[in-house]
Write a structure and sequence with these properties.
39% of the residues lie in helices and 20% in strands. The protein has 15 helices and 16 strands. The protein folds into 2 domains: 210 residues, 3-Layer(aba) Sandwich (Rossmann fold); 162 residues, Rossmann fold (3-Layer(aba) Sandwich), CATH 3.40.50. The chain is α/β, with parallel strands linked by helices and 388 residues long. The strands form 2 sheets. Strands 1-8-2-7-6-3-5-4 form an 8-stranded parallel β-sheet, with helices on both faces. An 8-stranded mixed β-sheet has the order 11-12-10-13-14-9-15-16, sandwiched between helices. The model has no long low-confidence stretch (mean pLDDT 88). The longest helix has 14 residues.
């Protein structure tokens, strides 16, 4: 079923305590994915939801999980799997906020790259909700430090990304352990072949929820491209010209991310980068600076940026043109949220990149305007050559 509008939370089958928590957070109207998923999940039905990035998927499954939680039962009652530690941490924070509606409900966040001892201590508190990356959850299962067999609800968040990253075997082994589950939720921006395979094997009569990118949900993003060999200078000059101070820069490789951040700093721009080789503690420090508005420019590879949900980015740069169209969509989707107009600029440095950018524009059907700096140093559209 397609959903293009939300409904007031008061019209959904929720407890007064949960409604109070939502009101306290300033939330009165659900998003389309929440309106579509909360009722069937409250009825313990399987759900497969396809919705654009930034449409509120976490609350769509988080609210039913907390509403179903039994604080008196110390066993694991729900498991949420996420592809990255960043997304897992963010989901856990949402659960901690929702749990105020049901005192005694506890959640834990398990992810790699962090001391396992601290996680073992938290597991001793017998949390009812486990949020985890597949690899670290498998480690805890093998240690015997967590028992998930009693879980009634299981959710795969960013399911397409998780399976694309090679977690298929971990995910299926984890699902096979939870024979007592009542429902499985698959939440994704795109429904890949791998996601459909999981749905086919592990779901029964699932409620299909699709949120179309119509005028209500589609981000308002002005898209541009600039031909340049000096990408750091172009980024610095565009930021100076526009006055934007909340920027994400995407690169295809770790070395490219390091290089772009380094040359931005040489040009007086406060920029930091993250990628898979940077220690987790340092990555969290950088991300927290960006979330707090203390870091104007955040440079990242696609994998490292997954799960980082910041809704007030002014402008996104593609320092490297992504190989896949869906990566382009995910990148520029970081801006233009919360009814604000966003800007995305793709920097094209060679002929293969031009071909990829042309292909992306064609496949997405988006208007991507070529721009340049004129003789006065002002941004201006590129006039088409005669005969074009």
């Amino acid at each position: 079923m397609e959903y293009v509008t939300g409904v007031p939370f008061e019209t959904l089958p929720l407890s007064e305590a949960m409604l109070g928590v939502l009101r306290e957070a300033g939330l009165r109207l659900s998003t389309p994915v929440q309106a579509g998923c909360i009722p069937p999940m409250m009825e313990w039905r399987d759900v497969i939801a396809k919705a654009p990035t930034g449409t509120g998927k976490t609350l769509a499954y988080g609210i039913p999980i907390v509403e179903h939680a039994n604080p008196a039962d110390k066993r694991v009652q729900a498991v949420v799997l996420a592809p990255t530690r960043e997304l897992a941490i963010q989901i856990h924070e949402e659960f901690e906020a929702l749990a105020k509606s049901r005192p005694g409900t506890r959640s834990v966040c398990l992810y790699g790259g962090a001391p396992i001892g601290k996680q073992l201590k938290k597991l001793e508190r017998q949390p009812q909700i486990v949020v985890a990356t597949p690899g670290r959850l498998s480690d805890h299962i093998n240690r015997g430090s967590v028992k998930i067999e009693t879980a009634k609800t299981v959710v795969l968040d960013e399911a397409d990304r998780m399976l694309d990253m090679g977690f298929v075997r971990d995910v299926t082994r984890i699902l096979d352990r939870m024979k007592k589950r009542k429902n499985l939720g698959l939440f994704s921006a795109t429904i890949s072949r791998e996601v459909l395979d999981i749905a086919w094997v592990y779901q029964r009569d699932a409620e299909e929820v699709t949120v179309r990118e119509d005028e209500e949900n589609k981000p308002d993003i002005r898209q541009f491209r600039m031909d340049t060999d000096d990408k750091a200078t172009a980024i610095a000059d565009i930021l100076k010209e526009t006055g934007f101070d909340r920027c994400m820069v995407f690169c295809n490789t770790k070395s490219s991310a390091e290089r772009v951040a380094y040359f931005l700093r040489l040009r007086g721009v406060d920029a930091e980068c993250i990628h898979g080789d940077i220690p987790q503690k340092r990555r969290e420090q950088i991300m927290n600076r960006f979330r707090r508005g203390e870091l104007p420019v955040f440079v990242s590879t696609d994998v490292a940026a997954r799960g980082i949900d910041v809704d007030d980015v002014d402008i996104v740069f593609n320092a490297d043109i992504p190989d896949e169209t869906h990566d382009y969509i995910h990148r520029i989707g970081r801006t233009g949220r919360a009814k604000r107009q966003g800007v995305a600029v793709s920097l094209v440095g060679d002929y293969p990149s031009r071909l990829r950018m042309d292909d992306i524009a064609k496949k997405t059907g988006n208007l991507v305007v070529p721009v340049r700096f004129d003789s006065d140093g002002k941004l201006a559209p590129v006039e088409p050559a005669q005969g074009e």
